[in-house]
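Observation: inputs received (chain + adenosine-5'-triphosphate).
Thought: call the complex predictor directly.
Action: predict_structure
Action Input:
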Amino acid sequence: MLKVTNLNVSYGDSRVIHDVSFSVEDNAAVAIVGRNGMGKSTLLKSLIGMIPVASGSISLDGHEISTLASFRRVQAGMAYVPQGRMIFPLLSVEENILSGLETGRYEAVPNFIYEFFPVLKEMSGRKAGNLSGGQQQQLAIARALVSKPSVLVLDEPTEGIQPSIIKEIAQSLNRLRKELGIAVLVSEQVLSFALEVADDILVLDLGRIVRSASKGAVDIDEVRSYLTV
Ligand SMILES: Nc1ncnc2c1ncn2[C@@H]1O[C@H](COP(=O)(O)OP(=O)(O)OP(=O)(O)O)[C@@H](O)[C@H]1O
Ligand SMILES: [Mg+2]
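Observation:
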C-alpha cells in the first residue's frame, strides 16, 4: 500500500503542495483530478523522487521512501509514467522498453509486456516517434512496467489523445489491475476517464485536496466545477 501523509512540496520559497494525505490500497486505483497548474505533476514527481519533499511522509508497504533516490523507489515497487510520455522518438519501440530495464528485474523485454500490449510487439522495430499518441502512451506504460511495480503512477495519460483512444487507455489500466495486480495512481483532467479507472477520486485545488470520494459517491457536478475554468 502507498500511504502519503501531510506532504508539503515547494519550489524554493513557493509552496505548491499543502498537507496532502491519501492512500492507495493494494490493487486499488485512485485518480487525482485538478485543473492546469493545481499541482498534480508536482505531487506525483515528489512521490517518485524527482522533487524533494519539504515535509511529510511517503510510505510504500510500510517503508518510508520519501528520502530515497528515485531508482530506490522504483526498486521498492513504484513506477512512473511522466506527463507528455517522454519516449525516445528516434529509438525503436523495443529499445524504448529496454530503456526501462536499468533498475528493472529483466534482461530482455519480458513476455508479459508484449502479451499485454500486442501492438507493441508488432511494432517493436519501428521508431517510437512514428507511433500514434495512443500507442506512445502504451509504450510509456510498457517501459514503466518492466520494473514489475506494485504501484503505477501516471501523470495525465490522456493528454493530447483522441477520445476513442482514451477508452483504450482506460481499458489498459483496468487490465493492469485485474491481470497483473498492479495498483494505479493517476492524475487527470478528463473526469469521465478518471471515473472509468478509479475507485476513489481526489480533487486537487491550489495544491490541497479539497474533496475526496469513492466513485459511487462522487458529486460529479461539483467535481466538474473544479475542473472548468
Ligand atoms: N520547476 C518549477 N519551478 C517553480 N514553479 C513551478 C515549477 N514547476 C511547476 N511550478 C508551479 O507549480 C504549480 C503547479 O504546477 P504543476 O505542473 O504541478 O501543475 P499541474 O496540475 O501538473 O498542471 P498541468 O495540468 O498543466 O500539467 C504551478 O503554479 C506551476 O507554475
Ligand atoms: Mg502536470
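Thought: report the result.
Final Answer: The beta strands are 2-11, 14-24, 29-33, 55-60, 63-64, 78-81, 151-155, 183-188, 200-205, 208-214. The radius of gyration is 17 Å.
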